Structure formats: structure tokens, C-alpha cells
Amino acid sequence: MENQSPLQNGALESAVGNGGRSGDGSALIFLGTGCSSAVPNAMCLIQPSDPPCQVCSQSLSTPPIILLIEEILMCNTSLLIDYCSSDGIRNYIIIDVGKTFREQVLRWFTFHKIPRVDSIVLTHEHADAILGLDDIRAIQPHSPTNDIDPTAIYLTRHSMDSIATKFPYLVQKKLREGQEVRRVAQLDWKIIEEHYDKPFVASGLKFFPLPVMHGEDYLCLGYLFGEKCKVAYISDVSRFPSNTEYVISKNGAGQLDLLILDCLYKKGSFNVHLCLPQALEAIKRICPKRALLIGMTHEFDHHKDNEFLMEWSEREGIHVQLARDGLRVPIDL
């Protein structure tokens, strides 16, 4: 693992394992690291407090080009896996396509030169994970008759049923008699087996589903992937079932190289997400080599809170930092 170093336009790069530099080998690109309502918080802008929210108010005073590279703007949580297999074939796999997907494409696909999406993996069917599905057509080849190869999308049966209600035109297999052809995203729906105990392969990369509780009434999936370096991505969690925690813990099935973990608020607790105190306790139990936190609200000041996390990391022996939108992490998968 290498220390973070500044790159062009202020982007940060941080290697895990023997991951290569920009353009060489596999990498993880954080398309979004914010909560469902994203950052800045709209209420902070239309009904500012006195004094105003320090994080959100900066979005009105900071030039747009600086906003692009600072931590002031955070879209819905989403990870793009730039996967380069051993034979040199490169595939692009995205986890979740939420409400801010189009903005993420404009900001980070262009910045990191991502030409397409080969597969989509969904964690659950909430708005901040799926409402960008309609925008997938914008990154597919243009065809007025939808005569293109569909993009594979992996999801649970529950998510499939929910999406079929929200986006029936994306799911229907053929038009009804007399129905006009309209250009829509072409998706190849692939259901993850119900018990979640079998891996699946998306664009050459093997994924192991990680069931977690997102509130006690809702089961969400995280994912474990990577053979040379093990990565767990868990974006929406309030509690780990014991079997899931065993699979990803140092004292269980084996130590993670990188844990990417939900962290909604800086203080206190919340019923459907981990907050910073619970996230740090979970990290101590799981004991990965490194952890990056995602899903934050506007309570977090990246510079100040990362300084606190650096002190915590030195004390506990686990490197933990807040991720940010646009962060690229080279990694040997």
C-alpha cells in the first residue's frame, strides 16, 4: 500500500496491493460517496442556518472547477470497478446507479476516461441505488429501434420485482400490439440466487454476495470481490449478521485488503445506517488492512475529519479515511 499523493487537477490516487498507476492495471473509482440526499444538502441552501452550514455554503462560493475536485459535492454512493484481467482485457463494472448517476458520468467518466459500462451490480432497490437506470441508455450505443447488446445487470428477486413496478418499460420483453418503439436502456436482468451463498461472475470478476441488515426490516447486499486483493463493498448497513462478518473478518475467513463501509453521520447512531462510532467499532472487529468510509452527510468536513481518522488509524493500527467522489484507487484484483 502506498501513501496518497496529489495528481493532476487535485485528484487523489492511493494504491492497494501491487496495483499499477493511472491507466495501468485494475482500479476502483468512487463515483459517489454521499448519502441519498447528496451533498450539499438542499435545505442548507434554500433555508440557511445562522451561522450557515460551513460545508454546504462553500458550494455557493466556490468556483465550479474547484468544486469538481474538492469534497464539497458528494453524489449517491456508487463504485466503478475498472477491472483489467490477467489476459489484459479491460471491463468496467458499476455498483449501483442512483439518482445522481448522470452527474457522475459527466464528472468522473470523462475525468477518468471511462468509455462504457459492461456490467451493473445492484445492492438493493432504494432510490439512491436504482433511479439512474433510465440514464443507462445515454452511455449505450444509439439505436432508435433498441437493436443493441443489452448491459448485464445483477440483482435480487426483490429488487427485480420493485424495478418492474418503477420501470416497467425497462423490463418488458416485447411490445404490446400497437405499442410504439421508444428508445430505452437495454438491460439483461440476471437474478442473484435467493440464499446468497453462491458467487456470480460479472464481466470476468467474481462477486460473493454479503447479506447485511439495512434496518431490522430490510436485507441489503454488500459484495466481496478480488482474488489477489480482497475488497468488501458495503454501502448500506446497520448490522452485520454473524455469518457475513465472519466471511470478511481477520479472525474469520481472512483479512480484507480493503473495506469500503457505510458511515452516515459523524455522531450518535441511526436505525438504518452505521454512523462514525459504529463504523469504527465494526472496523476494529473486522480488522481490514485498510478502510474507506462512504455514504456521508454534510456533517463531515473531509480535511478535519480525515485528520482525526489519521490519529485513530495510528492508535488502532488500521488505516481509515473518508473516501471522496472521484477518488481512484489502483488495486491488484
UniProtKB/TrEMBL annotation:
InterPro entries: Metallo-B-lactamas (IPR001279), RibonucZ/Hydroxyglut_hydro (IPR036866). PANTHER family: HYDROLASE C777.06C-RELATED, HYDROLASE C777.06C-RELATED-RELATED. Gene3D superfamilies: Ribonuclease Z/Hydroxyacylglutathione hydrolase-like. It holds the Pfam family Lactamase_B_2. It comes from the Eukaryota. Residues 92-295 form the Metallo-beta-lactamase domain. This is Metallo-beta-lactamase domain-containing protein. It comes from Gossypium mustelinum.
